[in-house]
Write a structure and sequence with these properties.
alpha+beta, two-stranded antiparallel sheet, about 25% helix, GNK2, signal, Gnk2-homologous domain-containing protein
């Protein structure tokens, strides 16, 4: 009896700790020290997230409240940048996100297609999505 009660208590505590850790790790930050990307800037080596666009996000966050959807004109990405959130997903083999809400489009930024090297190029507009780019964490 007594040992069973003690085990349940311990199990409950461990579960809480695990949930807290997952929550902390699962939400990436957009602070300047984590940025690496477009226009020749570096990114964390071997990281699974796609970092192209974070510098632009930080710039926009500094100047304008970031909202779900909406078009932004910037010198970096012309008029083809649409922001839906800040979390970047690994695009793996270059598959698609089949939900426009989850798409963040960039033009003239460095991006990575699958396991290939970083290259200068364009992401398609969200109606024509081609690559996994990001997901909402709002």
């Amino acid at each position: 009896m007594s040992s069973s009660s003690s085990w349940n208590k311990y199990s409950h505590q461990v579960t809480i700790v695990m949930v807290v850790v997952v929550a902390a790790v699962g939400v990436p930050t957009t602070s300047a020290d984590t940025v690496g990307i477009c226009n020749g800037e570096s990114f964390p080596d071997g990281d699974a997230w796609i970092y192209c666009g974070f510098a632009l996000l930080n710039k926009l966050i500094g100047d304008t409240p970031v909202k779900k959807g909406g078009w932004y004109d910037t010198e970096d990405c012309a008029d083809d940048t649409i922001l839906y959130g800040f979390r970047w997903a690994d695009e793996g083999a270059g598959g698609c996100l089949h939900d426009a809400k989850n798409y963040i489009a960039y033009r003239n930024c460095y991006h990575r297609i699958g396991g290939q090297a970083w290259a200068k190029g364009c992401y398609m507009r969200f109606e024509e999505y081609d690559f996994v780019v990001g997901e909402i964490i709002v």
